[in-house]
């Protein structure tokens, strides 16, 4: 059951990040494939979001 | 020890006779269903946004093909995000 919960959390993270990164990176009408800049944006997006998340958590902790 | 009451985590009416495996299958099936519904709702929102800029009296062929590409691209994006989150690059 614990594994299942982890899987659920992972799937939710992917779903949420895909939504956020789609909005950020796919700015024009969808084509038959991604442009190289769209592709590049998407591959970096999740990691940058995670980096940002760390910064936010750290800065809110230091302000206690 | 009371063996007649349901184990913690099981709601009443779930059938005390169900094996853990069957229960897990049920849970996974319900989860898969929930994800499918959530994905479809997300696709509706994203593709309406991108493809149907001014709703007309019917769906044009341009709008239809845009929707189809939109779904393909979104599924592709899901894969890209998933891989970037879960592969370690050193």
UniProtKB/TrEMBL annotation, chain A:
Annotated Tim10-like domain residues: 2-61
GO annotation, biological process: protein transport
Cellular component GO terms held in the UniProt record: mitochondrial inner membrane
Cellular localisation: Mitochondrion inner membrane
Entry's family note: Belongs to the small Tim family.
Notes concerning its domains: The twin CX3C motif contains 4 conserved Cys residues that form 2 disulfide bonds in the mitochondrial intermembrane space.
Protein name: Mitochondrial import inner membrane translocase subunit
From TrEMBL, chain B:
Coiled coil spans: none
InterPro entries: Tim10-like, Tim10-like_dom_sf
Keywords for this protein: Chaperone, Disulfide bond, Membrane, Metal-binding, Mitochondrion, Mitochondrion inner membrane, Protein transport, Translocation, Transport, Zinc
Domain (Tim10-like): residue spans on this chain: 25-85
GO molecular function: metal ion binding
GO cellular component: mitochondrial inner membrane; mitochondrial intermembrane space chaperone complex
Stretches the record annotates as Disordered: 1-22
Membrane topology: Peripheral membrane protein
Low complexity bias: start-end ranges: 1-11
Pfam families tied to this protein: zf-Tim10_DDP
GO BP terms, alphabetized: protein insertion into mitochondrial inner membrane; protein transport
Gene3D superfamilies in UniProt: Mitochondrial import inner membrane translocase subunit tim13 like domains (1.10.287.810)
Intracellular or extracellular location(s): Mitochondrion inner membrane; Mitochondrion intermembrane space
PANTHER family: MITOCHONDRIAL IMPORT INNER MEMBRANE TRANSLOCASE SUBUNIT TIM10
UniProt similarity note: Belongs to the small Tim family.
Notes on the domains: The twin CX3C motif contains 4 conserved Cys residues that form 2 disulfide bonds in the mitochondrial intermembrane space.
Function, as annotated: Mitochondrial intermembrane chaperone that participates in the import and insertion of some multi-pass transmembrane proteins into the mitochondrial inner membrane. Also required for the transfer of beta-barrel precursors from the TOM complex to the sorting and assembly machinery (SAM complex) of the outer membrane. Acts as a chaperone-like protein that protects the hydrophobic precursors from aggregation and guide them through the mitochondrial intermembrane space.
Quaternary structure and interacting proteins, as annotated: Heterohexamer; composed of 3 copies of TIM8 and 3 copies of TIM13, named soluble 70 kDa complex. Associates with the TIM22 complex, whose core is composed of TIM22.
Protein name: Mitochondrial import inner membrane translocase subunit
Annotated organism of origin: Brassica carinata (Ethiopian mustard)
């Amino acid at each position: 059951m614990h594994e299942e919960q982890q899987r659920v959390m992972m799937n939710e993270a992917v779903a949420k990040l895909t939504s956020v990164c789609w909005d950020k990176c796919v700015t024009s009408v969808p084509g038959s494939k991604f442009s190289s800049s769209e592709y590049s944006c998407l591959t970096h997006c999740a990691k940058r979001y995670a980096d940002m998340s760390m910064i936010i958590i750290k800065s809110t902790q230091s302000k206690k | 020890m009371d063996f007649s009451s349901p184990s913690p985590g099981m709601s009443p009416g779930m059938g005390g006779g169900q094996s853990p495996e069957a229960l897990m299958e049920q849970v996974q099936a319900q989860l898969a269903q929930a994800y499918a519904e959530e994905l479809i709702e997300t696709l509706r929102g994203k593709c309406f946004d991108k493809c149907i800029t001014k709703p007309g009296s019917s769906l044009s062929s341009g709008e239809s093909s845009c929707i189809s590409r939109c779904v393909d691209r979104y599924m592709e994006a899901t894969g890209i995000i998933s891989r970037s989150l879960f592969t370690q690059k050193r």
